[in-house]
Design goal:
This protein is mostly beta strands. It has a single domain, classed as Porin (Beta Barrel). About 15% of the residues lie in helices and about 55% in strands. β6 and β7 form a beta hairpin. The longest helix has 24 residues.
């Protein structure tokens, strides 16, 4: 079976990964407090339709996994770009979406143990081509992190879709929404 893969999409994915790696190395040169790590967890996601969906719109349970850099900009502000796989969308097979995402996350130290985070996120759909769903999704992310130790942490995040994920020829619009419960390890 031949896969119908758009060569422009492959170029965009490679460019996105290259930009993240160049960004990591550039920030590393300016940062005094630098850490890297891995993060994984559970997603509870759904799609918000306008007008409302004509079918039963159930949430999808999925997972996310990725890696991040954490760069100290000051004593109380950290910049944490990430690269992660995230399964999102809805439970119905037609709206199950898997993304390679790049959150550009700013963390603010509330105390030694708690960090509050916010930032934009771009996602590239990583399967299926010409399925009525756009290849890019833009979101806003907010969350709270609790440090268990200097290396281990748990966090909870809410992601709200900022852009329509359906192609322009669709009669309705849809945006992703996602709750993540994660844990991570810093090297």
């Amino acid at each position: 079976m031949l896969l119908n893969i758009n060569p422009n999409l492959l170029i965009m994915k490679k460019t996105l990964i290259l930009a993240v790696l160049v960004g990591f190395s550039t920030i590393y040169g300016f940062s005094q407090d630098t850490k890297y790590g891995v993060r994984a967890g559970l997603n509870i996601s759904n799609m918000d339709f306008d007008p409302d969906a004509t079918f039963v719109n159930k949430h999808r349970n999925g997972f996310m996994i990725g890696f991040f850099g954490e760069f100290g900009l000051s004593k109380s502000v950290l910049f944490s770009p990430e690269l992660q796989f995230s399964s999102e969308g809805g439970k119905d097979e037609a709206i199950r979406l898997d993304y390679l995402q790049v959150p550009l996350y700013l963390k603010f130290r509330l105390s030694e143990k708690f960090h509050l985070g916010v930032g934009p996120q771009v996602g590239v759909k990583i399967h299926e081509y010409e399925d009525g769903i756009r290849n890019f999704a833009y979101s806003g992310v907010g969350g709270l992190e609790f440090k268990i130790s200097h290396q281990l942490f748990v966090d909870a995040r809410y992601t709200v879709g900022l852009s329509n994920v359906l192609d322009d020829d669709q009669v309705i619009e849809a945006k992703n929404s996602n709750i993540q419960f994660g844990f991570g390890f810093k090297f």
